[in-house]
Amino acid sequence: MIRPLELFIGLRYLRARRRNHFVSFISVMATAGIVLGVAALIIVLSVMNGFGQELRARILGAVSHVTITAAHGPLKDWQGVYARVAGLPHVVAGAPYVEGQGLLSVSGASRPVLIRGIDPADSARVSTFHSHMRDGSLNALRPGRFGVVLGSELAWRLGVSVGSRVDLLSSRLMVTPAGILPRSKTLKVAGIYELGVSEYDSNLALLNLDDASRIFLSHDGVSGIRLELDNLFAAPSVRQRIAGILGKNFRVVDWTQQHVNFFRALRIEKIAMFVIMMLVVAVAAFNIVSMLTMMVTDKESDIAILRTLGLSPRSVMAVFMINGSLLGIVGTLVGVASGVLLALHIQAVVHFFEMQLGAHLFSQNVYYYTALVGDVHSADVLAIALASLAVAILATVYPARRAALLQPSEALRYE
Fold first, then answer.
1. 8-state DSSP, 185
2. Contact status, residue 152 vs residue 208, Cβ threshold 8 Å
3. Is residue 184 helix, strand or coil?
4. HEC states along 25-87?
5. pLDDT in tens, 73-125
6. Among 206, 280, 400, 401, which has the minimal tally of Cβ within 10 Å of its Cβ?
7. Where are the domains of the chain?
8. 3-state SS assignment for residue 13
9. Contacting residues for 271 by C-beta, under 8 A, at least 6 apart
10. Quick one: CA dihedral 338, 340, 343, 348, positive or negative?
């Protein structure tokens, strides 16, 4: 237990002018190192949180929170199935879809694509394609017109724009006098979207639900139902509840299962960055060890006098642990404050450096994301602060224990 006496002596040593100015320099550098490490760690994790949130939002623009399909074949009576789950907590909307594989070709260029048939009116409630249209409109997908909306990268590879015509070869076959041939249809490009995720911008084409049903001969049902939730993180629990209601004849999948490896990689990368950036704090902690070791050497006579006056070894150890821990506390608090402040205004900081350098750090021609977004999580800040304090306190143990074991007779022999 730390008594007022140890705290008073520790604070007195911290404020006193030292004969060895190099010790004071190391103290300042140790505190500055902790400030830098903590601030950098908060900024890096906040930017990674913002990146993950933005990427997750773009992915969920094409992937639903929860998807219901039949275990075998098309999903029949989708209205009845949706009515059974529409009243569940967190479920706010649902829309049917038809999917199939196809090959788009124009002027000798061809690309394999995933064809998704949607109802533009219902799709606005379960996806964000409407807000990511670069050209044209999703409402142009009207029944019978066989319009298609392409991803920006897919349109670029095919060399088409709004108004162009492309040929679609579907995976469904038809029997003709010439033999078994794939169904084909000429489509008119009605729009181009850009989610900013290459997986969808280069491989996904959107058709009207009725047109896709005709091409893939799925008039007796749809491929599945896409559900929108008011809380995307509730998807796993909602999925389990829906699976229990519908039974084994249906397959229910949520977004965490569809991209489990990707989001797991983001989480592992965040942990790795936490460990790497904590090394900066560890280096600052080594400075605390050096500073306290030199202070113990500088204060040997003072320690001997205090011991002679009755101060116990445990109290001596507490004095120097307080001295080093205060540096860690000050460095952590200043680092947390500056890190949170910079993370919340990271875009302004980037803009300042762009103005000074006269160049764009994140060019739109190179990066999908041209703006850094800081998403500060209180749990991350708390974990960083506690880890920094733990490292700083542990760094004081060895030099403080060395001071506690100092023998007064040895220290005063040559005084």
1. E
2. no
3. strand
4. HHHHHHHHHHHHHHHHHHHHHHHHHHHHHHHHHHHCCCCCCEEEEECCCCECCHHHHHHHHCC
5. 888 888 888 889 888 898 888 889 988 888 888 887 888 899 998 888 887 78
6. 401
7. 4-57+262-411, 66-258
8. helix
9. none
10. negative
If one compares 138 and 312, the residue with the highest pLDDT of the two is 138
C-alpha R_g of the chain: 32
CB atoms inside a 10 Å sphere around CB 179: 7
Contact 239, 252 (CB under 8 A): yes
| Spatial distance between the Cα atoms of 252 and 243, rounded to a whole number of angstroms | 6
Residue linked to tokens 């181009």: 192
* Nearest Cα to Cα of residue 100 among 169, 11, 10, 47: 169
From residue 362, alpha-carbon distances to 156, 351, 370, 374 in Å are 22, 10, 5, 15
Distance of CA 37 to the CA centre of its chain: 20
- Determine the 3-state secondary structure of 126 from DSSP: helix
Residue with tokens 């009243």: 87
Structure token digits, residue 386: 């506690």
Q: What pTM value is reported for the model?
A: 0.70
Tell me which residue has tokens 């084909």: 184
Residue-wise pLDDT for 9-22, tens only, equals 666 666 555 555 55
Rounded CA separation 165/193 (Å): 17
**Which residues, at least 6 apart from 126, have a Cβ–Cβ distance to it below 8 Å?**
64, 93, 94, 95, 226, 227, 228
Q: How far is Cα 110 from Cα 91, in angstroms, rounded to an integer?
A: 39
Q: Which of 176, 198, 17, 207 is nearest to 102 (CA)?
A: 207
Nearest CA to 279 among 380, 398, 387?
Answer: 387
Q: How many helices (H) and strands (E) does the chain have?
A: 16, 10
Amino acid identity of residue 139, one-letter, is N
CA distance 262 to 265: 5
The beta strand positions in 89-245, using DSSP E, are 91-106, 109-118, 133-136, 147-151, 165-176, 179-193, 204-208, 224-229
Pairing state between β 147-151 and 179-193: parallel
